[in-house]
Amino acid sequence: MTSVQSINMPGRINKGLMSQRLTAILLVLLIGVLIVIGFLYWDKIFERPYVAVHLSNGDTYFGQLYRFPHFELRDVHVIQPVADAENPDQTSLQVVPLNLIAFWGPDKLQLNRAQIIFTAKIGKDSQVMNVIQKLKEVPAQ
Protein backbone atom coordinates (compact mmCIF):
# COMPACT_ATOMS: atom_id res chain seq x y z
CA MET A 1 0.00 0.00 0.00
CA THR A 2 1.08 3.42 -0.76
CA SER A 3 0.35 6.31 1.48
CA VAL A 4 -1.19 9.42 0.10
CA GLN A 5 1.05 12.45 0.54
CA SER A 6 -0.27 15.94 0.79
CA ILE A 7 -0.25 17.65 -2.54
CA ASN A 8 -0.23 21.40 -2.90
CA MET A 9 -3.44 22.16 -4.57
CA PRO A 10 -4.18 25.44 -6.27
CA GLY A 11 -5.72 27.85 -3.81
CA ARG A 12 -4.06 26.27 -0.78
CA ILE A 13 -1.31 28.23 0.94
CA ASN A 14 1.69 26.53 2.41
CA LYS A 15 1.96 28.24 5.80
CA GLY A 16 5.68 27.51 6.25
CA LEU A 17 6.60 29.00 2.88
CA MET A 18 4.38 32.02 3.51
CA SER A 19 6.03 32.60 6.89
CA GLN A 20 9.53 32.47 5.35
CA ARG A 21 8.61 34.93 2.61
CA LEU A 22 7.02 37.33 5.07
CA THR A 23 10.11 37.17 7.30
CA ALA A 24 12.40 37.82 4.32
CA ILE A 25 10.30 40.79 3.14
CA LEU A 26 10.23 42.33 6.62
CA LEU A 27 13.99 41.86 6.97
CA VAL A 28 14.66 43.56 3.62
CA LEU A 29 12.34 46.45 4.56
CA LEU A 30 14.03 46.86 7.94
CA ILE A 31 17.49 46.94 6.37
CA GLY A 32 16.27 49.47 3.79
CA VAL A 33 14.83 51.75 6.49
CA LEU A 34 18.07 51.55 8.48
CA ILE A 35 20.11 52.47 5.40
CA VAL A 36 17.90 55.48 4.67
CA ILE A 37 18.08 56.65 8.30
CA GLY A 38 21.87 56.22 8.20
CA PHE A 39 22.17 58.42 5.10
CA LEU A 40 19.91 61.10 6.60
CA TYR A 41 21.53 61.29 10.03
CA TRP A 42 25.16 60.31 9.33
CA ASP A 43 26.42 63.92 9.45
CA LYS A 44 24.52 64.62 12.65
CA ILE A 45 25.99 61.57 14.38
CA PHE A 46 29.57 61.88 13.10
CA GLU A 47 31.24 65.28 12.78
CA ARG A 48 32.67 65.81 9.30
CA PRO A 49 36.17 67.38 9.45
CA TYR A 50 37.14 70.49 7.52
CA VAL A 51 39.67 70.03 4.74
CA ALA A 52 41.79 72.19 2.49
CA VAL A 53 41.35 71.42 -1.22
CA HIS A 54 44.01 72.68 -3.62
CA LEU A 55 43.03 72.72 -7.31
CA SER A 56 45.18 72.63 -10.43
CA ASN A 57 44.32 76.29 -11.22
CA GLY A 58 46.00 77.38 -7.96
CA ASP A 59 42.81 78.00 -5.95
CA THR A 60 42.58 76.65 -2.42
CA TYR A 61 39.25 76.16 -0.70
CA PHE A 62 38.39 75.15 2.84
CA GLY A 63 35.24 73.32 3.84
CA GLN A 64 33.61 69.98 4.51
CA LEU A 65 34.29 67.48 1.71
CA TYR A 66 31.57 65.12 0.49
CA ARG A 67 32.56 62.34 -1.90
CA PHE A 68 29.14 60.87 -2.70
CA PRO A 69 27.44 61.11 -5.17
CA HIS A 70 30.09 63.56 -6.47
CA PHE A 71 32.91 65.61 -4.99
CA GLU A 72 31.38 68.58 -3.23
CA LEU A 73 32.66 71.10 -0.71
CA ARG A 74 30.16 72.60 1.74
CA ASP A 75 30.53 75.55 4.10
CA VAL A 76 33.21 76.81 1.72
CA HIS A 77 35.81 79.40 2.73
CA VAL A 78 38.66 80.97 0.76
CA ILE A 79 41.72 83.03 1.60
CA GLN A 80 41.46 86.52 0.19
CA PRO A 81 44.19 89.20 0.16
CA VAL A 82 43.10 92.41 1.88
CA ALA A 83 44.86 95.79 1.70
CA ASP A 84 46.10 97.06 5.02
CA ALA A 85 44.17 100.19 6.11
CA GLU A 86 47.26 101.84 7.62
CA ASN A 87 49.72 100.93 4.87
CA PRO A 88 48.11 100.41 1.40
CA ASP A 89 51.33 98.86 0.07
CA GLN A 90 50.95 95.97 2.53
CA THR A 91 48.42 93.20 2.12
CA SER A 92 47.27 90.62 4.61
CA LEU A 93 45.32 87.42 4.15
CA GLN A 94 41.81 86.92 5.43
CA VAL A 95 39.63 83.78 5.54
CA VAL A 96 36.22 84.63 4.05
CA PRO A 97 33.11 82.50 3.42
CA LEU A 98 32.68 81.99 -0.32
CA ASN A 99 29.04 83.02 -0.22
CA LEU A 100 30.06 86.53 0.90
CA ILE A 101 32.47 87.22 -1.96
CA ALA A 102 30.81 85.37 -4.85
CA PHE A 103 27.92 87.21 -6.45
CA TRP A 104 25.82 84.03 -6.77
CA GLY A 105 26.19 83.24 -3.05
CA PRO A 106 27.01 79.51 -3.24
CA ASP A 107 26.56 77.39 -0.15
CA LYS A 108 28.39 74.47 -1.76
CA LEU A 109 30.95 73.98 -4.49
CA GLN A 110 31.00 70.97 -6.81
CA LEU A 111 34.54 69.90 -7.64
CA ASN A 112 35.97 68.15 -10.65
CA ARG A 113 37.90 65.20 -9.24
CA ALA A 114 40.51 65.44 -12.01
CA GLN A 115 41.35 69.06 -11.02
CA ILE A 116 42.11 68.28 -7.35
CA ILE A 117 45.84 68.26 -6.64
CA PHE A 118 45.53 67.39 -2.94
CA THR A 119 43.25 67.51 0.07
CA ALA A 120 44.39 67.89 3.67
CA LYS A 121 42.53 67.83 6.96
CA ILE A 122 42.54 71.10 8.84
CA GLY A 123 43.62 70.76 12.46
CA LYS A 124 41.04 71.69 15.08
CA ASP A 125 43.45 74.14 16.69
CA SER A 126 44.86 75.63 13.45
CA GLN A 127 44.58 79.33 12.64
CA VAL A 128 42.25 78.66 9.71
CA MET A 129 39.91 76.53 11.84
CA ASN A 130 39.89 79.17 14.60
CA VAL A 131 38.82 81.83 12.07
CA ILE A 132 36.10 79.56 10.62
CA GLN A 133 34.75 78.84 14.12
CA LYS A 134 34.69 82.58 14.94
CA LEU A 135 32.85 83.29 11.67
CA LYS A 136 30.23 80.69 12.60
CA GLU A 137 29.66 82.34 15.97
CA VAL A 138 29.03 85.77 14.42
CA PRO A 139 25.36 86.13 13.41
CA ALA A 140 24.73 86.67 9.70
CA GLN A 141 23.78 90.18 8.68
Task: Explain briefly what this protein structure is.
The protein has 141 residues and is of the alpha+beta class. Helix content is 33%, strand content 29%.
Written description of the protein model:
This protein is an alpha+beta fold. It folds into two domains: 13-46; 50-137, Roll (SH3 type barrels), CATH 2.30.30. Helices cover 33% and strands 29% of the residues. The chain has helices at 15-45, 98-101, 127-137; strands at 50-55, 60-66, 72-83, 91-97, 108-110, 116-121. Strands 1, 2, 3, 4, 5 and 6 form a six-stranded antiparallel beta sheet that branches. The termini are far apart. The model has no long low-confidence stretch (mean pLDDT 83).
SSE diagram, text form:
Elements: H1 15-45, E1 50-55, E2 60-66, E3 72-83, E4 91-97, H2 98-101, E5 108-110, E6 116-121, H3 127-137
Antiparallel strand pairs: 1-2, 1-6, 2-3, 3-4, 3-5
Can you tag this structure with a few keywords?
141 residues; alpha+beta; SH3 type barrels; 6-stranded antiparallel sheet; 3 helices; 33% helix; elongated
Helix percent reads: 25-40%
Radius of gyration: 28 Å
Mean pLDDT across every amino acid position = 83
**Could you give a short account of the major beta sheet?**
6 strands, antiparallel
Structural class: alpha+beta
Q: What do we call the CATH topology of the largest domain?
A: SH3 type barrels
| Count of structural domains | 2
Percent strand equals 25-35%
Catalogue the unreliable spans: none
